[in-house]
Amino acid sequence: MAFLIIAGCDKEKPAAPPSPTVELVTVTQQDVPIYMEWIGSLDGDVNAVIRPQVTGYLVKQNYREGDLVKKGQPLFEIDPRTFEAAVDEAKGVRAQQLARYETARANLARVKPLAAKNAVSQKDLDDSTGTEQSAKAQLESADAALKTAKLNLGFTRITSPVTGIAGIAKAQIGDLLSPSMATELTTVSTVEPIKVYFNISEREYLKMATAAIASGSRPEKVPLTLILVDGSVYPQPGRFSILNRQVDTSTGTFKAAALFGNPDNLLRPGQYGRVRATMSVQKGALLVPQRAVTELQGKYLIAVVGPDNKADIRPVSVGERIGTDWIITQGLQPGEQVIAEGTQKVRPGMTVNPKPFVPAAPAAPAAASPAKADDKPAAPAPAAKG
User: Residues 363, 364, 369, 372: what is their CA dihedral angle, to the nearest 10 degrees?
Assistant: First the structure.
């Protein structure tokens, strides 16, 4: 029995489990812009819907669809012959009325001195006066009819009321046009500057308004940036233009609009983008990857690794999210090492095997494919959302 006991004591004890391998990232400190962001749709600052004002056959289209047209530039022409004849007829009627008025005025001029000498009766004077006034009224009516005929003739040349981009024509040469048409001829949109519509929630509105009041500035002064659907930042700055007077009860948001310069006509109505408003800049913010932060029952925890490679689970206070990072307002110091990968493997006081955290490389772009109508804008570049 003693021999067996001694032999059992000579057996090796079980080896301790190896230290878990974790990936570390250094807490960085930098100035971070705090912003708010909304999805917006682009539209013309003015969208002039072009419709015919007279009935006639379309005989000419004077612009190229999709091109920039100037204010007053002819876009369409309606057959003018009927309206030219109406002008000639109105001119003839006016000439007749003018002759009658001149005759009535001359008769009145002869009757007035005779009536003063009682050479004619008062009735003759009244008849001459009434005839002169009636002829004058008929002449004025003829003048109005001539002006109307000339206006209708002018309406056969349909011009652009604004300078902007003209859309595709919805009528063809030879179509019978009329003011009661169900569709317009085309639309001309002013795109310099171009307008971007977006919706602001009540919470966001209150935050912006409170910040503006506290700083003594106006919301119109908040710098705006437009991010296009390909993720590029549009170089022209924007400014707030419109905030609707009330909240839309169906969505709980205000409708707002911003204006962006568009000197090269790059932006067109119907495009989408993200409107970013920079509210402030947080100086010396501490940043860690969002994946390094663990939320547990409303508390935020981070695993910190000291110089002795021992892990410490530490509660922290978080601020704004910045892309894939998170601002830590309390609980960390610049230069500390935190676990970005493998947090679930460690316990407080455990020794770990550290190695640098390497973010996953972005996926290679796929072959180009036709864009879909419901494509959404790309994820925002690193910046904070307030």
Answer: 20
Tokens of 371: 């864009």
pLDDT at 16: 61
Nearest to 269 by CA among 168, 384, 118: 168
Helix intervals (H) in the chain: 2-9, 81-116, 122-154, 202-215
Please give the structure tokens belonging to residue 146: 């001539």
Instruction: Give whole-number Cα distances, 318 to 70, 75, 292, 301, 332, in Å.
Output: 54, 59, 12, 10, 10
Q: Tell me, what's the pLDDT at 3?
A: 53
CB 105 within 8 A of CB 135: yes
Q: What angle do CA 254, 374, 279 make, to 5 degrees?
A: 40
Q: What percent of the chain has pLDDT over 70?
A: 87
Six token digits for residue 164: 């902007």
Spatial separation of the C-alpha atoms in residues 83 and 89, rounded to whole Å: 10
Closest CA to 72 of 195, 151, 157, 171: 157
Q: Which two tokens stand for residue 21?
A: 């391998």
Kindly write down the DSSP assignment for every residue of 203-258, as one continuous string.
Answer: HHHHHHHHHHHHHT--GGGS-EEEEETTSPBPSS-EEEEEE-SS-BTTTTEEEEEE
Q: Which two tokens stand for residue 73?
A: 């530039």
Q: Which residues contact 268 (CB under 8 A, 6 or more apart)?
A: 42, 165, 191, 194
pLDDT over 80 (residue 369): no
Q: What does the pLDDT look like over 66-95, one tens digit per residue?
A: 899 999 999 999 999 999 999 999 999 999
DSSP lists the bridge partners of residue 327 as 287
Those residues whose C-beta lies under 8 Å from the C-beta of residue 374, and which sit 6 or more positions away, are: none
What's the pTM value of the predicted model, to 2 decimals?
Answer: 0.65
- pLDDT tens digits, one per residue of 131-146: 999 999 999 999 999 9
Is residue 50 within 8 A of residue 187, CB to CB? The reply is: yes
| DSSP secondary structure letters along 152-171 | HHHTTEEE-SSSEEE---SS
Q: Rounded to whole angstroms, how far apart are CA atoms 105 and 78?
A: 42
Report residue 23: phi and psi, to 5°.
-110, 130
